[in-house]
């Protein structure tokens, strides 16, 4: 822990990469592991364009359930710690795989969202984006196209400019924090290995061991909401 604090104090550029585990203590279910299922469906069964084409009502129902959970949730100590780190460290960038808005609500501003934003909709036909539509019926765009959540599904490309900025931030970072991700979904899972390759100190914060654990500079095992405030000496 003291070693990690020293790296963070001395670092000119810091990147934090976050996954679903950082929102777990805000009672948002993660995708994998305990509590990662919804009615016996896995994320891989529902978060695809094929699933939406096959059964758009089922897929929208899952998203509406998650949207309500997120709207009722509050950021936790880990989200607040990263917002505080942004204030302290001028060269800080936060890259998240999460589609919730808990980082924004905790006060993070330099934020790159790799997998989109669950509170938005995108037209399947004309790609126009808008805020969430709450409707029992399948909502449609003025052009007639079906509206789908504004997120990145399996088999879809990540937003190109956001991906490019994330790669760049990681390439320039001297310290990279990797928090609450199972490290199995690419291309996001490639960012931490790229940081190791580029010579950054990579600090993993996770409840469990992950595919990264062997290759990182330091693995801190435990809850993000407990470890991050201690790491930044906020308590
Ligand atoms: C705690 C904690 C606490 C718990 N404190 N820690 C074979 C090999 C390689 C790649 C592929 C392959 N076959 C297919 C692919 C590609 C595919 C992929 O990676 N698949 C793998 C699963 C095999 N990737 C894609 O398809 C991507 N696109 C792509 O590749 O495009 C190519 C292309 C190029 C050009 C044109 C067209 C296409 C897109 C991936 C999109 C992922 N989308 C989702 C859904 C988003 C929308 C939604 O939310 O519904 O993103 S899937 C889901 O997984 C979500 C997450 O962001 C993502 C990652 O999950 P995450 O965050 O790691 O969460 P969990 O639940 O897995 O882990 C939680 C962790 O927290 C655990 O480790 C816990 O221990 C820990 N934890 N509590 C600290 N309190
Ligand atoms: Zn449209």
Description:
α8 (160-172) runs parallel beside α9 (191-197). The protein is elongated. The chain is an alpha/beta fold and 235 residues long. The chain has a 6-stranded parallel β-sheet, with helices on both faces. Strands 5-4-6 form a 3-stranded antiparallel β-sheet, covered by helices on one side. The protein has helices spanning 2-10, 21-24, 43-46, 49-54, 56-72, 77-88, 102-106, 160-172, 191-197, 224-231; strands at 13-18, 91-96, 111-113, 116-123, 129-131, 147-151, 175-179, 201-206, 218-221. The protein has 10 helices and 9 strands. α9 (191-197) links the parallel β7 and β8. Zinc ion is lined by residues 123, 125-126, 128, 141, 143, 145.
What secondary-structure arrangement, pairings included, does this model have?
Blueprint: H1 2-10, E1 13-18, H2 21-24, H3 43-46, H4 49-54, H5 56-72, H6 77-88, E2 91-96, H7 102-106, E3 111-113, E4 116-123, E5 129-131, E6 147-151, H8 160-172, E7 175-179, H9 191-197, E8 201-206, E9 218-221, H10 224-231
Zinc ion is lined by residues 123, 125-126, 128, 141, 143, 145.
